[in-house]
Design brief:
Layout lengths: L12 H7 L2 H21 L6 E9 L2 E9 H5 L8 H15 L1 H4 E2 L6 E9 L18 E10 L7 E4 L1 H4 L5 E8 L2 E7 L5 E3 L5
Parallel strand pairs: 1-7
Antiparallel strand pairs: 1-2, 2-5, 3-6, 4-5, 6-9, 7-8
Bound molecules: zinc ion (ZN).
């Protein structure tokens, strides 16, 4: 997974600064801001930014959420104290509550089918795929069964309320009505889904 590391957040900043003069420092800030911009479009790991993928196929609705762990709990390392463990547990529980994280129009008659949450560093979780790098991601996958999928006109996320560090969600949908993209924010947590043609 590509990781964008803004120099100001690098742990080795002090060592790094010692080796660089101010001119190089500014040049690399500029370069990393380009990298961050490019990364946003390819789904790279960027703190504060999560991704949501929605697929509707008949009555079946799938919603996948992926976020840097930092945006959920404020760190991306194994827990070092009880507060860390508690933060992981609370976030895991919040993500398991599909109906709170994703609310759908009542008219669509959607019922939660399956919920899968993968949170690194939570006991009993298998997180082999997360690697041992400096970054870690958490994922939630929800599936719903909807009796009236044509009434799936919008979706509201509860993710910003649950996770105040989250600044933006890049969302993509593929439904019977077509494909759509949106950028969700704390002030714009409702997503208007592609309308039937
Ligand atoms: Zn990270």
């Amino acid at each position: 997974m590509a990781c964008t590391c803004v120099p100001l957040s690098c742990q080795t900043l002090d060592d790094w600064m010692g080796a660089m003069n101010a001119r190089h420092f500014l040049a690399s800030l500029w370069l990393s801001s380009l990298a961050v911009t490019a990364g946003a479009e390819s789904g790279a790991h960027e703190h504060g930014v999560a991704h949501l993928h929605l697929v509707q196929d008949g009555a079946a609705l799938s919603v996948e959420f992926e976020s840097p762990l930092d945006s959920l709990v404020g760190f991306e390392h194994a827990p070092r104290d009880d507060a860390h463990k508690q933060a992981l547990r609370i976030s895991h529980e919040a993500l398991e509550n599909a109906a709170q994280m994703v609310s759908l129009p009542a008219a669509a008659g959607c019922a939660v089918d399956t919920v899968e949450v993968e949170m690194p560093f939570v006991e009993d979780a298998h997180h082999d795929h997360l690697g041992k790098g400096e970054h870690a991601d958490a994922q939630a996958h929800y599936t719903f069964n909807c009796t009236e999928p044509s009434a799936l006109t919008q979706l509201t996320v509860g993710l910003f309320k649950a996770f105040p560090r989250l600044e933006r969600i890049d969302a993509e949908a593929a439904t019977a009505a077509g494909q759509g993209k949106a950028v969700l924010r704390p002030t714009q947590a409702t997503w208007t889904l592609p309308a039937p043609r």
